[in-house]
Amino acid sequence: MDPVRNPYAPGAGQRPPELAGRGRELDVFDVVLERIARGRPERSLMLTGLRGVGKTVLLNTLRSQAITHLWGTGKIEARPDQSLRRPVAAALHMAVRELAPRHRAPDRIDAFLAVLKAFGQRSAPGGRAGAAPKLRDRWQPGIDVPAATGRADSGDIEIDLVELLSDAAAVAADVGTGIAVFIDEMQDLGPEDVSALCAACHELSQLGAPLIVVGAGLPHLPAVLSAAKSYSERLFRYQRIDRLDRIAADQALCAPAEREEVAYEPKALDLLYEKSGGYPYFVQAYGKATWDHAPRSPITDADVRVAAPEAEAELAVGFFGSRFERATPAEREYMRAMATLSLVEGDAGGRDDMDAAVPTAEIARALGRKPASLSPARDALIKKGLIYSGERGTVAFTVPHFGRYLRTQPA
Predict the structure, then answer these.
(1) What is the separation of C-alpha 62 from the centre of its chain, rounded to a whole number of angstroms?
(2) Alpha-carbon distance 201 to 193, whole Å?
(3) 60: which DSSP letter?
(4) What is the 3-state secondary structure (H, E, C) of 293-362?
(5) What whole-number distance in Å separates Cα of residue 260 and Cα of residue 256?
């Protein structure tokens, strides 16, 4: 097979050649956009799932849908060490610039940009008076108008964000459209920022304002939001993004191949689904390796068996190994215990190990330690995005097949 014609794309956030199995999510978002355009109430949207299920790809596709509907859009990626203030200001700046050519009152745009500039440049209260911000914290938005005073500049992120998003929604309403702010890795927002975002979405929903937030994050994102505001359970529409079913996984492999006049034998598709588990990233990784090793069409199960070690070696280095290397020795010990127990838990529950949550008390027992002494390792792993706590007293891997990978590694 010609490697230049290889259609598969295993990459972080890289759109696959065939976005299979996500039709329902796309249809739901189309309805949301249409309802808001007609003045109907709608909730902001939260996408949750493990790593490798295509949350970022879906987030980017939803943004493209919003642009098609002539909405203003902006996207940010949350980081644990960064305040929401500057990224959200940059995202709204982009969104309003998309709407500005259709606005009949340039003064209204300038007035909003003045508020936006004030919001982006305002530091939190309690900072040292007159202290110059660090270079990485300076925001240079390229806005010619002077910063406004008395609006979105209190330094309280909750008050300021409500005012800023309300003003942005008013600009969108002027041109008969909406604004969508897309936030990836949303579980990494700080507690104050999460609280502020929930409060702003709550205010906007009560006003029926045409601005929504579309977030994507790990499975514990609903718990993060709920810890910030109890009403967040009713504030957002949650959609769990999971592995592909067999039909969708076959479509993700076969549709791009057919466009290159290449076919798969049924047994090859059986084996590819078994190897990938239906996870979109793995489907692309195994598909790419199989294509490169197959001598001709149709692709057979023998081709898959020959190619699988190469795909697994690449995943071991780029997908699993890079994450494993980020962990300290104590954190690795914790994860190895998790991996052993997750297999036991998975078998007992009739599930495979990639979905099994493990009680933290069992991990402590397996390591012969007190649970409290393991809290630093557990908290650090959660902060690094390697594990999550979906329910109190349990933890699970954020990466599918990670337990299986760890069980193959020497202690």
Answers:
(1) 12
(2) 12
(3) H
(4) HCCCCCECHHHHHHHHHHHHHHHHHHHHHHHHHCCCHHHHHHHHHHHHHHHHHHHHCCCCHHHCCEEHHH
(5) 7
- Break the chain down into helix, strand, coil percent, rounded to 5: 55, 10, 35
Is residue 42 exposed (0-12), middle (13-18) or buried (19+ Cβ within 10 Å)?
A: middle
Q: Please, are residues 75 and 61 in contact by the beta-carbon 8 Å criterion?
A: no
Q: How many CB atoms lie within 10 A of CB 219?
A: 19
52 contacts 281 by C-beta, under 8 angstroms: yes
Surface-to-core class of residue 365, CB atoms within 10 Å of its CB (0-12 exposed, 13-18 middle, 19+ buried)? middle
Q: What is the DSSP letter of 48?
A: E
Cis peptide before 329 (omega within 30 of 0): no
Name, in order, each residue with C-beta under 8 angstroms of 265's C-beta and a sequence gap of 6 or more. Answer: 298, 299, 300, 301
How far apart are alpha carbons 397 and 336 in whole angstroms? Answer: 11
Our CA angle for 296, 14, 318, nearest 5°, is 80
pLDDT per position as a tens digit, 57-89? 999 999 999 999 999 999 999 998 889 999 999
**pLDDT on residue 140:** 60
Alpha carbons 20 and 304: distance in angstroms, whole number: 21
Which token pair is 77? 């990626």
Q: Does the global pTM surpass 0.90?
A: no
| Phi then psi dihedrals of residue 48, to 5 deg | -130, 150
